[in-house]
Amino acid sequence: MKIFVTGGSGYIGSRVVQDLVANGHDVEGLSRSEKSDAKLEALGARPVRGDLVDHGALKRGIQRAEGVIHLAFGSFSQDMSENFASGRIEADAISVMGDEVAGTDKPLVTTSGCGLIADGVVLTEAMKRPADEGLFRVSEQMTSEVVARGAKAMVVRIPQVSGPENEGFVPLLIQLARVHGFAAYVGEGRNRWPAAYVEDAAALYRLVVEKGRAGQIYHAVAEEGVTLRDIASVIAEKLNVPISSLAAAEAESYFRQFTMFASMDNPVSSASTRKELGWEPQGPIMLEVMHNGDYFDG
Question: What is the pTM for the complete model shown?
């Protein structure tokens, strides 16, 4: 299959491209720079110059493709206004991509997160994200809209993704521990984050573009929930700093704009995804990767 990928030079996207090529797919990737061109070419893909604002480039890439995987999004910022701006750009891009594939059999796979849907209960693929205007990323809601307009679109919800050269939330926690001189969690630290190894998440995107069904949600979740206390314990051990519990009222002074994420309890099931697509994660668990990987280099 000829597949057009956005975000193909990013942390997860580069593994998605690598997995697609290794499994015989012909890949083109949206690219914003010569550096991204070179990375995509090294992975065996052809770059298409443009970004999410360049709707012409999106249309050209999709017109040549038989399937689309969308991962591109700006990095999470402590400045929430930047996140909302990125969310608006992404929503417009998904709308354009959805209209481009509408009425065809081309699958469009978009990306969402697992958080801020059902705090404290196990999230399943059948549970929908609320249409809340307070969310900065609305890719899931926009995907539902383009499905209603005739697109064969589906969503992959990603958890905390671990692996070499990690760029997710855990490095932010490590940075905060370095700044404050101790690792922290809120209350008893029993709140949970779902997790998966990056290569496993990449393999799921391939399975979804190959076999996914319109309107479906899939979970790239290998571990239902890793407690924040366990994550903070590894950080404290590796940095040789103390570990401390913070009361809810103290959390914002430590976590700042990240407080909401550091406090959320977000266990997630992937039972339906595994059963439908035959996805079986093989990678190491998050705490093992933190112990043995390069999270604390530099």
Answer: 0.94
Residue with token string 């969402």: 112
Residue 62 included in any domain: yes
- Lookup: tokens for 16: 């998605």
* CATH at residue 40: 3.40.50.720
Is residue 133 pLDDT above 90, yes or no? no
- pLDDT digit string (tens) for 17-68? 999 999 999 999 999 999 999 999 999 999 999 999 999 999 999 999 999 9
Q: What mean pLDDT do residues 291-295 have?
A: 85
Kindly state whether residue 187 falls inside one of the protein's structural domains: yes
C-beta pairs of 80-83 under 8 Å, 24+ apart in sequence: 80/136, 80/257, 83/136, 83/137
Q: How far is 228 from 291, CA to CA, in rounded Å? A: 15
Strand partners, 29: 5, 47
For 294, counting Cβ atoms within 10 Å of its Cβ (0-12 exposed, 13-18 middle, 19+ buried), the class is: exposed
Distance CA 286, CA 293 (A): 10
Query: How many domains does the chain fold into?
Result: 2
Residue 82 has pLDDT above 90, yes or no: no
In this structure, what DSSP letter does residue 213 have? Answer: -
